[in-house]
Write a structure and sequence with these properties.
- The chain is α/β, with parallel strands linked by helices.
- The protein has nine helices and twelve strands.
């Protein structure tokens, strides 16, 4: 493995030159490769082209809000995102996490804490014991890159759709109940919100099985839950 291939690729989206310099020095000293973008638009383009393994995102950008960047990113990608912001209020953190952020770090921060949070972020992206790539029919899921393709073409899954597919893959061939899907994807207290599940599962199926008569990858177990076919 080459030295460049061994280093995780990170993207920093922040308009402050000094902060970007500090982040680059801190992250590169720990073995990461760092790319930079000073606006939200440039950051989204860089994320789409380079597909980094994680993103550090500031909430205050000159062209659009950081939450807008995050929401646009989550329309097509589940790349782990660490929010970095001077805003330390609880409401700011909740809004960012609800929009799809994986973690939130308030400025000023220590280099040690930044690196610790980045290690956790990357570990979560590929849990211990999970295969790197899973296939079902002509659909391929790369857990390390957090990408999904069908017949080689990118599938743009939402955060919830990706989480549902991942959970079904983890229990391939077994029925996953409505309650378990709702609890694990939406959180405790949502076990009865089956309308959420129906809508998102219908959208996921349209992306996985787009053509009429296509192989059914997800089976409905009436009144119980869903099951992913047990075929590689």
């Amino acid at each position: 493995m080459s030295d460049s291939a061994a280093k995780p690729d990170l993207l920093v989206i922040d308009d402050e030159v000094q902060i970007r310099r500090l982040l680059r020095l801190t992250l590169e000293s720990a073995g990461y490769r760092v790319r930079e973008a000073e606006t939200g638009a440039l950051g989204l383009n860089e994320a789409a082209v380079q597909r980094p393994e994680a993103i550090v995102l500031d909430l205050s950008l000159p062209d659009m809000g950081g939450l807008d960047v995050l929401r646009r990113l989550r329309d097509w990608s589940q790349i782990p995102v660490l929010i970095l912001s001077v805003r330390g209020g609880e409401s700011d953190k909740i809004a960012a996490l609800d929009a799809g952020a994986d973690d939130y770090l308030t400025k000023p921060f220590s280099g040690g804490e930044l690196l610790a949070r980045m290690r956790v972020l990357l570990r979560r992206a590929q849990p211990t014991g999970e295969v790197s790539i899973a296939r079902v029919g002509d659909v391929e899921v790369d857990f390390a890159k957090r990408t999904v393709t069908r017949a080689g073409a990118d599938l743009h899954l939402t955060v919830k759709e990706y989480a549902l597919l991942r959970l079904l893959l983890q229990h391939r061939g077994k029925v996953v109940t409505h309650r378990q899907l709702l609890r694990d994807v939406w959180g405790p207290g949502h076990e009865e919100d089956t309308h959420y599940l129906r809508v998102h599962m219908a959208n996921l199926r349209k992306k996985l099985e787009p053509a009429a008569g296509a192989t059914r990858l997800v089976k409905t177990e009436a009144g119980i839950g869903y099951r992913l076919i047990d075929a590689g």
